[in-house]
Amino acid sequence: MLSRNVKQEIDNRKTSPWVSLSPEFQSADFVFGNLEGAVSDSSSGNAVYNDPAPIFGIPSSFIPMIHNAGFSALSVENNHCMDFGVPGRNQSIQQLLLSDIDPIYFDNSPQFFRFGETVVAIIAINLVPGKDHQCQKIPSVALSQKLRLAKNLANLVIISIHWGSELLEWPNKEQRFAAQWLIEHGADAIIGHHPHVVQQPEIIEGKPVFFSLGNHVFDQKYPATKEGLLVECILEKGQVSFKCLSTHTAKNSFFPVLVDSQQNFQDTVPLRSLHGFSEISLQAGPTLKLPPGELCLEAHSEGKKIWQTRSMSLVSIEFAKLDGQNDFVLTLERHYSNMDHENGLRPYVYSVDKDGLTARWRGSALAWPLLDAVLMPGKEQYLCARHRGDSFINPDEKNDQIRFAVYRWNGFGFSGVEDKEICKECEQFLK
To answer: Which of 87, 213, 292, 429 is the most buried (most CB within 10 A)?
Structure first.
């Protein structure tokens, strides 16, 4: 947070809050954090909302300082990112891009980054309502789709999440429920922020959960708010190790320094293997320069990229032997259709070889407008779909009724299934 007393200390000392941490950051291949606030050069500093809660205006001149400190990417998904409305949020994103910092937020998640032959996906989530009273929720169809996309196209899926109760030194029930749900849906590590105090990390289902890293750069003065954690992640030999490093800010200062003693926490997680097609692995290409929701797929063989697709409006992706023998790719993509005059969710099936993707079936939204579709575990020839309650004849995007349906691959497309047991299993699975 680079506002209020932090801004005053920067102005008075005429130096960066990271003056003592820059060597640590500069030696890393990638540095990620959460940017609490929004860029605003308004002299009045007035937010666009009639709300007495504090606003965190960040001078645009401070953004290059963040880059110079060594930051590679920042989440702009928290309860203060909308302090200056949509214009302030957009300005924050643009200023970060101009300073060569990757902004990550829910709509452009997952973002994919490559380190050698390892692909890392980062998803940014905010569960704390801001001044616009908006935030994400868990469970979430949109979030499950993002996790499905990330875990099938990256070796490591990291969640950056704004959650929890301020100044509470242990995770609340919402955090625990969300952590369990995120891990069940594909998260490999969870990095939390918002409580402003350190909450002890834990290992849940073999995955590290850093419930709260406390304060890094912030101007609160309670003793517990002067402490923070850095999470050091090392990719090596098919695994990633996580270790906590402690920081402290001195009295009357808000600039963190590294503490010699280390937290008693360390964990190692194996990296995911990417899906292979006859010695070809399919993975995500860089996403930053593409519009939110757009993605290119890359095929790699023996460590080299052999082809790349055009930009695709990918919502989720899965791999399956739909006919019991051959590998297929099932995607959910957003496309406009003259059938319903909507930019809706459409299922596609592709085969993959050394020459690229080949479309085998370009579906409509099946029987009704589609909200989600997932291949059933252990029955991958079956497609379990969540539909809206309206129809293509009388479309109504605001229809909040839900209906479930099951389809089976017939070699040329998907046919409806009437089996009551499978339909019941589908409904339970998607719920």
So the answer is: 213
